[in-house]
């Protein structure tokens, strides 16, 4: 099988490699009911040493920058309540935490969630968090530039491997909201 983007040696439909996925991602793929068939979620095996965006692009090719996205966990606070949410933006942009995220969550203050919170609440590894398999109640904020791509390279839940997913999938996830201006240069 060939990946829909990039040049990867080991490529499989995600349902065929559930054993390579962390538990919440494997469960989400197993129970998949999204806008595309589960077999269209593609897993590519990548070296965990190159999981971070800059080193990944250096090793696998800078042309992937415009086709890859980062998923980060944010915490919005208002009146003693904290709301955790995921934000998905193109890798060449940053999340507008104090503007778009804060407004969307109705929070007085928003910030990136601490690493222990992000990994503990998601069951995923830092540097590999993906919107697929997140806690069901979490808002998933998606930049329209991600949703508009034919395919997007994102984390797989662990630092080893990535998922390649049709962009429209992210706008169709439970609790997903496409937010203009979420990713800024």
UniProtKB/TrEMBL annotation:
Q: Where are the transmembrane segments?
A: none
Q: What is this protein called?
A: YbaK/aminoacyl-tRNA synthetase-associated domain-containing protein
The YbaK/aminoacyl-tRNA synthetase-associated domain covers which part of the protein?
Answer: 63-166
Against Gene3D superfamilies, the record matches this protein to: YbaK/aminoacyl-tRNA synthetase-associated domain
- Which Pfam family is one of those matched by this entry? tRNA_edit
The source's superkingdom equals Bacteria
**GO molecular-function terms, A-Z:** aminoacyl-tRNA deacylase activity
- InterPro entries in alphabetical order: YbaK/aa-tRNA-synt-asso_dom_sf (IPR036754), YbaK/aa-tRNA-synth-assoc-dom (IPR007214)
Q: Which residues form the signal peptide?
A: none
């Amino acid at each position: 099988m060939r990946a829909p983007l990039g040049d990867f040696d080991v490529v499989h439909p995600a349902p065929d490699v559930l054993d390579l996925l962390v538990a919440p991602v494997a469960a989400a793929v197993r129970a998949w009911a999204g806008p595309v068939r589960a077999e269209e979620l593609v897993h590519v095996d990548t070296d965990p040493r190159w999981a971070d965006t800059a080193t990944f692009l250096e090793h696998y090719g800078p042309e992937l920058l415009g086709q890859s996205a980062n998923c980060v966990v944010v915490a919005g606070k208002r009146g003693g309540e904290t709301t955790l949410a995921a934000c998905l933006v193109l890798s060449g942009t940053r999340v507008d935490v104090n503007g778009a995220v804060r407004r969307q969550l109705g929070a007085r203050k928003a910030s990136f969630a601490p690493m222990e919170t992000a990994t503990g609440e998601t069951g995923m590894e830092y540097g590999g968090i993906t919107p697929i398999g997140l806690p069901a109640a979490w808002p998933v904020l998606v930049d329209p530039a991600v949703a508009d791509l034919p395919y997007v390279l994102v984390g797989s839940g662990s630092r080893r491997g990535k998922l390649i997913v049709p962009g429209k999938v992210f706008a169709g996830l439970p609790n997903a909201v496409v937010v203009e201006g979420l990713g800024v240069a």
